[in-house]
Every structure is written in structure tokens, then in C-alpha cells.
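Consider a typical record:
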Amino acid sequence: MKYEWNENLECGYEEIDNQHKQLIETLNKLMKASSEGKSEKVVLETLDFLTGYSIKHFEDEENLQIKYNYPDYIHHKQIHDEFKNVVGELIKKVQKEGPTIEIIDIVSSTMGAWLLTHIKGDDFHMAGFIKSRL
């Protein structure tokens, strides 16, 4: 399954939207590398980048929330932290069992579904609040 960026995913905050686009593009690269039988190294490098970039993205969002005194900051941060834990466990599974297509599909679908749900829910609320403060 390929993830597609579209206008329905735009929260209207350019920096955050650009990061979301890059996360989706990287998920698609991961799935492509796995389905093409690319080396384990390529798949693990892509997973590593995706994990690191997600962390940076979360930090950027959280810094915006602090800057604008977002009232749901604590809850939003908890959601990010829970997701990082889930991804960490999935990455350990890939490192232990190898990047099989089945495991990469689980990683990609888990991360992709969460990202799309998070963007349309929590991030839209956050962006709306921030825009109201500008």
C-alpha cells in the first residue's frame, strides 16, 4: 500500500506539512526497498532515518505547542511518546528477525495509519489553535 499526500492532510502550517510529506515519502521508500528485495542495510537505514526524523518532527511540534501555550500540550506529548515506544519495539523486531516483507508491512502500516490519524486529528487541532494565535 502506498501512502499519498493530498490537500486533506494539510494542517496549514508549512513547516509541519513539509515534515509530514517527508515522513510519508520515507514510508513509501521503505516499502519499495523491502518489496524490491533491497539489502537489509538499505531497509534498516531507511527505518533509522524514519525513526530519527519522526523524533525531530515531534520535537518541532512540541516546541510550537510550548511557544503558543497550547492547552493540550501534555496529552499531545503523551501521544508522541507512546508512538515512539511502539515504533521502538517494531524496530527491535526488525533488527532481531530481519527486515522481511511481512515485518516491514507491519511497521509501515502501523506508522502510516498512525501518522494519517494523528495528522487529521491531533495535529489539525494543534494547528488550528496556533493559527488562532497568529
